[in-house]
Amino acid sequence: MPTVSIARCPTYDPSEVEAALHRLLEPLGGIGAFVGPGQRVLLKPNLLLPARPERAITTHPVVVEAMIGLVREAGGEPFVADSPGGPLHTRAGMHRVYRDTGLQEVAERTEVTLHYDATAVQVPTPDGVLLKRLDLLEVWQEADVVIALPKLKTHGLTTITGATKILFGLVPGLTKSGYHAKLADLDRFCDMLLDIVACVRPALFVMDGVLGMEGNGPSLHGSPRQVGVLLASRDAVAMDAVVCRIIGLDPDRLSLFRAAARRGWWPVEVTVTGTPVAEVTVPDFRLPDTTQAATRRTGRGRLSQLATSALTPRPVPQRGRCTACGTCVRICPLQAITIVDRLAVVDDARCIRCYCCHEICPEAAIDLEFSRLGRLLRWSGMLG
Are residues 141 and 113 in the same domain? Predict the structure, then answer.
């Protein structure tokens, strides 16, 4: 029976975060239950973009710094590694990410190592259901223990991005686009996410939900939302299920939990310790505009492709905001985007609605717009 621990934490005051983390981990056996003396510990935060912490796009540096301290208390040797989206995984791109997210300052204070190496390695996945090999950051193999530090956020494709999806960040840079291209069906994509969980096997997940993100996350289109919690668990699916309860979402609507059910990971009875879910529920939490459509995105073949095109919003670059930087062109899995007259243009017939372009655009210049039929269905209440 998986356990999820919840602790209130209304601010990022360092002493408050540290105290909350101790309360959070105590029911799970404390940090010593996960880290032993001399062990190399990979701390894997969510570092999607070079964004300031107050944007709620990345794991807050105060949470990362507090976890560095806890790992060292247990005698472990922490280091930080991630692979941001799209073309950012170069040394220059990683420098921007570490600088803007506040982790460079954390590294200077704590002397923790920040990894810049984008070298990938193919690893077998003997417990994989969909994939038998995965492309992961080589630095992952240097760790004795992995602790994932997800952010409580919404996501246009998977509705939420939490404990399960954070490990997709171990797939290097633009290699992520290849996985989107091969696994355009949402159920298959979620199966791949669970294969990564089964392969990496993090010892612990600690979620930053002090300042979460609602609306059209997971990046610049989303809106910060005070939630005031930290969560911890050994089990990614259980943690994401509790997050769904906090934000008023039925987990069984999501492809992630259908994929988990197919391998016997869901449904399960989840034990919640610490602060009760009812005391931290956010009843008016805004979900992405894509939420209703996402429940209709399974299946393959021409009919499902036509339904996806009609019933899911399409990415539309906006003149006046688009700077023709080409980031979306480089990240698009199907090469469905071109620059025409200094404006990114999406070929709707080729677009698979992965929303990588919307997620990674540095100018927040790509909006998600429903077709006329989609707008009519939304207006009628049939599509949410």
Answer: yes
Residues 336 and 192 in one domain: no
Cis peptide before 267 (omega within 30 of 0): yes
Nearest CA among 192, 195, 374 for reference residue 292: 374
Q: Provide the token pair at 244.
A: 């769904």
In tens, the pLDDT along 93-116 reads: 999 999 999 999 999 999 999 999
- Predicted model pTM: 0.95
Number of domains in the chain: 2
- Report the C-alpha gap between 317 and 163 in whole angstroms: 30
Q: Is the peptide bond before 53 cis (omega within 30 degrees of 0)?
A: no
Give the Cα separation of 139 and 32 in Å (integer).
Answer: 23
Tell me, yes or no, whether 286 lies in a domain. no
- Quote the domain boundaries for residue 307: 291-380
Cα separation, 145 vs 41, in Å, equals 5
User: Which of these three, 256, 279, 302, is where a domain ends?
Assistant: 279
Q: Length of the chain in residues, anyone?
A: 384
- pLDDT score of 22: 98
Decide if 308 is inside a domain: yes
Query: Distance between CA 97 and CA 68 in Å, rounded?
Result: 19
Q: Please choose, from the candidates 269, 256, 145, the residue with its C-alpha nearest in 3D space to the C-alpha of residue 195.
A: 256
DSSP assignment string, 237-248: HHHHHHHHHHTT
| Separation CA 293–CA 312 (nearest Å) | 5
* pLDDT tens column, 51-66: 999 999 999 999 999 9
Report the CATH number that the domain containing residue 359 is assigned in CATH. Answer: 3.30.70.20
Q: Which of 167, 154, 155 is nearest to 44 (CA)?
A: 167
For tokens 């032993």, name the residue: 36
Residue closest to 28 by CA, chosen among 234, 171, 200, 167: 234
